């Protein structure tokens, strides 16, 4: 599956638009991870625990978007975007991946 943040795929033409596809995941924080993260906030620097959590969430959202595109018979998803939203008092975060599923010529 080809993913592109632009609305074209270099060297290929879009022959059919199949529609919007998306994948999302909502993850809550884990108290043990929060304790370590809060300690890191005191001394500064990257909070590796949250970096890993968000990276895993992004991959899962992309995988779900790709699965939806494959179910439509797409060759690619163009205009891929990602958004992250805090869902209520910092207890959970939603990661959303979306784009347009297309067939290529």
What does this molecule look like?
The structure is a single chain. With 105 residues, this protein is α+β, with helices and mostly antiparallel strands. The chain has a single domain, classed as 2-Layer Sandwich (Translation Initiation Factor IF3), CATH 3.30.110. It contains two helices and four strands; from the N terminus they run ββααββ. A four-stranded mixed beta sheet has the order 1-3-4-2. A hairpin with a 5-residue loop joins strand 3 and strand 4. The longest helix is centred in the middle third of the chain and has 24 residues. The protein is elongated.
CATH class: Alpha Beta
List the strand order in the largest sheet: 1-3-4-2
* Backbone CA Rg: 17 Å
Oligomer: single chain
Question: What's the overall geometry?
Answer: elongated
Number of domains: 1
Largest sheet: 4 strands, mixed
Series of H and E elements: EEHHEE
Number of strands: 4
Instruction: Give the proportion of residues in helices.
Output: 25-40%
Average pLDDT metric: 88
Q: How many distinct helices? A: 2
């Amino acid at each position: 599956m080809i993913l592109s943040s632009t609305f074209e795929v270099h060297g290929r033409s879009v022959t059919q638009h199949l529609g919007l596809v998306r994948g999302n995941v909502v993850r809550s924080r884990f108290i043990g991870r929060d304790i370590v993260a809060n300690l890191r906030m005191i001394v500064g620097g990257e909070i590796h625990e949250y970096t890993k959590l968000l990276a895993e969430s992004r991959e899962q959202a992309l995988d779900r978007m790709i699965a939806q595109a494959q179910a439509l018979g797409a060759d690619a998803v163009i205009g891929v975007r990602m958004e992250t939203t805090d869902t209520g008092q910092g207890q959970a975060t939603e990661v959303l991946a979306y784009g347009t599923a297309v067939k290529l010529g």
